[in-house]
Specification:
The protein is mainly α and 54 residues long. The protein has helices spanning 3-25, 28-47.
Length: 54
């Protein structure tokens, strides 16, 4: 695994954690921000052929 792939997967995991935390805290604004970031990261992964786990 190259550094780009590893870094991208780490960012996805961190953003998923932050999204879960925002949902649990009921912070609707932060949920929107984190979901947007996660969508962007998934799009970037797809563009570069990076497999993201379920």
């Amino acid at each position: 695994m190259d550094a780009f792939t590893a870094g991208l997967l780490q960012r996805i995991r961190a953003t998923e954690t932050d999204l879960t935390r925002a949902r649990n805290e009921g912070d609707d604004f932060l949920v929107e921000v984190e979901q947007g970031e996660l969508d962007d990261l998934h799009r970037l992964a797809a563009e570069h052929g990076v497999e993201v786990g379920a």
